[in-house]
Amino acid sequence: MEKDTDKRKAADDAAIDWVMRCNDGPLSKRERAAFRAWLLADEANQDAFDKISSVVGRLRSMNFETSPETRGKPPAVWLSAAAVALTAATLAFGDLATMLRSGYYTWPGETKLITLADGSRVHLDSRSAIAVDYRAAERRLVLLEGQAWFEVAADAARPFVVAAGQGTTTALGTAFDVSLDHGRTSVTVGEHRVAVVSGGRTVVVGEGEQSSYDDGAAAAAPRKVDLLRATSWRNGSLIFENATLGEVVEAFGRYHRGHVIFADPNLRSRRVTGVFDADDPVESLEEIEAALGLRMTVLTKYLIILYR
């Protein structure tokens, strides 16, 4: 299975290179010979080249309206980005190494409820992974990617500890949420308290509060948060208030097996407020498209273009 995935990825990587080289201008005699040899070497190479060529061809046929800074410039930059995005989508989980290190993981669009050996429960968000290391003196879990909600079974003799980033969260008889996002860990408490340790500082976070820390930095002082919004993913919803479109699309990326590309990067700064269905991110994007007066084209199930 892993060998097949590696083979497809290698074929897609090479296909992207050949498509871009062909679009740059006529190939030399030596390049044409190398290209033909590559196509004939494996049927997967021809399939990959056809797939990437189709995406680039459809992008070229579209009349995008871009920002004044990009209008009139050749589309090579974001055409290349589109092809790269499609290649990245061939690995649905994103990081195979993380998946192999984990004890439990979820695919894009999937959530999972896990009951551990001691009766504690973990609700794992989409595109997330945890490792479990239960020992006689400690129950330790590691959040490797994504987000999870923990409901801890009482056991005073064995602390329940969740490591994430470069810090830890120790339950003090509680239910809590931990999320990892670009090197920042956020801990939100639903019941009772937790002790968050990072950067040489320990803070106690109470019910309805949140603390966060960057890798290597001290944990922030607890602050009150909207618990419903912070944990809305558990009910299949994503709630945003005055978030940028870039932030919203990134959040949807956890639930969508593919990529969204902005034809105009300035669109990322548009503001979005609303409640959206995490189970259908494409439909949610269509709602945002209508609300913001944008246009959206679904080229493949793995690739969506947003533009004006």
Automatic annotation (TrEMBL):
Residues spanning the membrane: 76-94
Keyword Transmembrane helix part of the UniProt annotation: yes
Keyword Flavoprotein among record annotations: no
Domain FecR protein: 105-192
Pfam family, one: FecR
Record keywords: Membrane, Transmembrane, Transmembrane helix
Stored InterPro entries: FecR, FecR_C, FecR_N, Ferrdict_sens_TM
FecR N-terminal domain location: 13-53
Record Gene3D superfamilies: 2.60.120.1440, 3.55.50.30
Span of domain Protein FecR C-terminal: 238-297
Gene Ontology molecular function, alphabetical: sigma factor antagonist activity
Protein name, UniProt field: Iron dicitrate transport regulator FecR
Lineage of source species: Bacteria, Pseudomonadati, Pseudomonadota, Alphaproteobacteria, Hyphomicrobiales
